[in-house]
Amino acid sequence: MNFNKLKLSLYALLLTNYYGFKLKTITNSIEKKRVRLFYAQRLLKKLKIEVEIKNADKLKQNGQYLLLSNHRGVIDPLIVELALADSEIFGLWISKKELYNSPFFGLFVRNAGSILLDREKSQMGGFFSETKAGVKQGNSIFIFPEGTRNKSDASLIEFKEGFRIIALKNRLPILPVFIRTHTHTALGASLAKKNINKTVSIEIGDVIDYKERGNIQEIYKKMFNI
Questions:
Q1: Which end of the chain has less Cβ packing within 10 Å, N or C?
Q2: How far apart (Å, rounded) are the C-alpha atoms in residues 193 and 88?
Q3: Domain boundaries, the chain
């Protein structure tokens, strides 16, 4: 590990836990959104990563959605937060148990607005009840439908079907976004070289009706020309 990577990793750890603790006392979703956005801006600035938002005019200013995003790197949630900065959309992130228990991300994930997805549980009723409760409170739901980070050479891996159930049960229109830049590679470049600037591109897609009968992944791929 080079010195720059060590320094940035330590900075990220301290910043993440600082804001994780700060978010613990905040219940208002607008204030949570503000703090999450400030955290994302501050960390990405330190990493010298800029975010380019394509088709920003397609983004609604408010409303509730099931946001779908591809997933390549750990900074993907930050990229999504910045893409939504000029809207009033606030979402609860669907988060795996590994993130909840992580010494690096755990405090932030638990307090920033998220719903735990424990795939080891045989019954998912509690999970879907939590998503319904979150939507009733006026929140959107944000999810990586691939279910895990895509570490393959393919642009996209198979979507898990759970996202369709969330959309249907809560009558949430689907808001697709696509992070075109390989964020794991971009982050690696930032950690390896102190003075390198990187731009990550994220595209906003057209809203899909929750009653859409077609294959959502195929619609997603066609929409973003994947």
A1: N
A2: 35
A3: 3-223
Q: Give the span between the Cα atoms of 23 and 193, in whole angstroms.
A: 31
CA 199 to chain centre: 18
Encode pLDDT of 73-90 as tens digits: 999 999 999 999 999 999
- Options 3.40.390, 3.10.50, 1.10.10, 3.40.1130; CATH for 3-223 is 3.40.1130
Q: How far apart are CA 207 and CA 59, in angstroms?
A: 9
What is the spatial order of strands in the sheet that 174-179 belongs to? Answer: 49-54, 198-204, 174-179, 66-69, 140-143, 91-96, 114-117
Instruction: Using alpha carbons, select from 6, 5, 146 the residue that is nearest to residue 72.
Output: 146
| Residue located via tokens 């920033």 | 112
Token pair recorded at residue 157: 């891996």
pLDDT tens digits along 157-205 = 999 988 999 999 999 999 999 999 999 999 999 888 867 889 999 999 9
Structure tokens at 176: 């697709």
Is beta strand 174-179 parallel, antiparallel or unpaired with respect to 66-69?
Answer: parallel
Cα distances (angstroms) measured from residue 160 to each of 71, 81, 148, 151, 173: 13, 23, 10, 16, 17
Rounded Cα–Cα distance for residues 94 and 17 (Å): 19
Q: What is the pTM of this model?
A: 0.94
